[in-house]
Amino acid sequence: MDRYRRLALLMALTLPLGVGLVGCDGTATKRHAPAAYPTRTVGTVTVDINPPLLAAELGSDPAKRPWPDPLEPPRDAPLLQDSPMASAVLLYQPYPVVTRDGWESPQVYVYGGDPAAGFHWARIDLGLVVMQDDTPGKTTTFPVTAGSLGPGGEFAAFVQPETVVVLAIRTAAVTRVPLPGGNFALSWLGDGKRVLVSSAVGNRTLDVFTGVVQPSSVRATDYVIPYGDARGVMSITDQFDVQTLSPVKLHIMDDLNAPAKRDHSFADVTETFTATSATLNGFRYLGRIAVTVGGRTPLNPAHTGEGGGVCASDGKDGAFLMVVDEATGTVTHILWLTTDPYDFTVEVVGWLGPSSILLSSWDKGLVSWDLELGTLTQLSRVAKPIEILGPTIAVAPRWPDLPRQSIAAFPAARMVKGGASVTTGHDAETSLRCLH
After folding, report:
1. N or C terminus of the chain with fewer C-beta within 10 Å?
2. Where are any strands of DSSP class E within 270-317?
3. What's residue 248's pLDDT?
4. What angle do CA 75, 362, 266 make, to 5 degrees?
5. Segment 392-410, tens digit of pLDDT
6. Is the pLDDT of residue 107 over 80?
7. How far is CA 17 from CA 8, 32, 94, 337, in A?
8. 8 Å CB contact between 382 and 359
9. Average pLDDT for residues 38-65, to the nearest whole number?
């Protein structure tokens, strides 16, 4: 169901950047937004509509860029154990190939390094599989999710049907933690030690260092990924139904199993924007929550459909990005990039600072949205626009004083293969060889 939510909304997030387009050759072509849609309106809610897309200063040395340009890993990228890096900036999983015999093993790439040694792409080959659930109402789940990179990019985790695969980026050491139950979603928690896993048998947290499993009342796909600090827990939910859409709700609680101490609903954000469905995960930075939502926009005024459901009058779902104040529950900013539906998809994938949000676009790569200035800046381009289904991108949350875990302690974890436990060592090559 959660993968269906993501694909259904992504197909609806048809958000072309309407002004100041920058091609892969670096040339700029300017196109003005229609007069009916002003670039920025400031009132109770600051609304940015089709702001100019500015080109970032990428620098002359590609190896020194913190963001890949273009946002496309080379097919011949070296394996991670053969090309180590200090930490990961992002994970990149192209949409997997499906054949008559089923899904092929998905390709997973990591981009990372550090400013001194430089940044590069590497390939992760762990024999990961796609989980296909043919049960009505269920869908296909891929290993990489929005929350697959832990704080600081030191560890990555991949959801598998009966296990969680955890990778130490710096050493390429791997552990496979048995977690039966038909797992379909995963997200790192802010402490950098635990992952939140959703499965057919419920929601659980897994400590990747100790193997301790505990129940949770929050789904991994609803969890608000923290930047800036890791205090408290927030989740964003909606009861996704194509006929009867429910408002997006923000729940604020002290921990994963505590009742919500505050709930905020976003049925009518403004007169023309209504949030009725949320893409997977929100992202928080110091009291601000950013999330991609679907609902009513100026291009699709709502009407009542069969059964009383709220529908788009022209059959097109609108979508926009919104920022919520944690303390008051009020929406402070909206970014709406749509004037021509069915062009490309964009969604929030993280924060760059207290007032800068990181977006991922099938058509424009990585883009930052400045909340103070209302501008968009292209950080990395795409070599070729994606027309059907785009990649899954996970960005490493970073902030000052983020919790650091001991990588030296991680290889002492036990991995299981064929019913036999194997203790991983510090030798990355030896650790990876055990998995094949």
Report:
1. C
2. 274-278, 282-285, 288-296, 302-304, 310-312
3. 83
4. 140
5. 889 999 866 655 655 555 5
6. yes
7. 21, 11, 22, 6
8. no
9. 78
* Residue with token string 């990395």: 380
Q: Per-residue pLDDT tens for 68-90?
A: 988 889 989 999 999 999 999 99
Q: Please identify which residue in the block is written with the tokens 């008051």.
A: 328
Q: Please enumerate in sequence order all residues whose Cβ is within 8 A of that of 361, keeping only pairs 6 or more positions apart, or say none.
A: 15, 17, 344, 345, 346, 367, 382
Q: Which residues share a beta bridge with 366?
A: 360, 380
Count the Cβ atoms, other than its own, within 10 Å of residue 299: 18
Which pTM does this prediction carry?
0.79
Q: Which long-range contacts (CB under 8 A, 24 or more apart) does 201-204 make?
A: 204/179
Query: Which of 434, 252, 271, 244 has the alpha carbon at shortest distance from 325?
Result: 252
Tokens of 136: 């009505």
How much is the pLDDT for 386? 62
Euclidean distance between the first and final Cα of the chain, in Å?
32
SS3 381: coil
Give the angle 150-154-158 at the CA atoms, nearest 5°. Answer: 50
Which domains, ranges and CATH numbers included, belong to the chain? Answer: 2-433 (2.120.10.80)
Per-residue pLDDT, averaged over 160-179, amounts to: 92
